[in-house]
Amino acid sequence: MRRVTLLCAALIYMLGTIGSALVPSFGLLLVTQAVAAAGTGMFVPVAAATAAALVPPERRGRAIAIVLTGFTAATAFGAPIGTAFGSRFGWRATMWFVAALAVVGIVGLLSLVPRGIASPPAEPLRRRFAPLADSRVVTTLGTTLVAFTSVYILYTYIAEIFTDATGGSGNKVALLMLTLGTVAIFASYAAGVLTDRIGGRGVMAICLVWVAVCLLVLPLVNGTYAASLVLIGVFAVTAFSMSAPQQHRLISLNPSLAAVLVSLHSSILYLAIALAGALGGLGINVGGSGSLGFIAAALAVLALLLSELSHRLVLRRPTPAATTPATTTTADATD
After folding, report:
1. Is the pTM of this model over 0.90?
2. What is the mean pLDDT of residues 214-219?
3. Could you tell me the CA-to-CA distances from 90 to 87, 94, 95, 122, 123 in Å, in that order?
């Protein structure tokens, strides 16, 4: 049951965080943080799939976007709040504070999430890996991997990329990140609404072209702080808005395996974060931080090509939902 899974994920995260507050050594801290991360990894995809199951198909993109907007808000505000709290009360106090927030989340799940959410029957492990044999799923996941690798190269190396503008000031870097996250909160929800209207393919095309242009302009403006702030704000409009249309496209391919498909999306997203760190580091070693914008822009263009390939594969082999008049929506038809 999805409600039970969400509660278990939140409890695992809470217990891992409490353990982090109590452990006496760094080695054990790594273990408890891994436990907390496992809870997070369980929670996010199930939350998105649950939101999609609670609404009609024509509102699916908006529902997913609401969940992802919360995730984006946590990313935007969690780091600065945690840093401020920890600097005043210590890192262990920060862990207790986060554990208390987890308790609030658990209470919210118990109070607000319905018990009888429709859930697909349990299936063998082989069936759950079956989507990876579908070329449409693989190319859609490939689009996610390359697109978010492009975005996270800038996010991961934001301090190095904007060194000239910030003068090495941590506060100025923090403001850049806060600007990016704040804009992304509103943009992420807007992307979900737009996905319901024009479909995931169209939203992805807009996002990837937008991201590529911002990255190509980057070397022209990253020498001054005011211009850098503006660019980051513009970049944020689409940079983190791609999860909603991509998850919508995946769910549309096989709604009965929504939770599995969204989980695959989340796994690919974490892989993109890791790959961005590796490629960005290699880029700095070879061409310096000034090369990162061009590398990331090239990846955004490659992601656009993959997105269009995914769309053409769907047209060749449409999903049942896309051919059944009773369930066809604008977004499904265009995906």
Report:
1. no
2. 94
3. 6, 7, 9, 44, 46
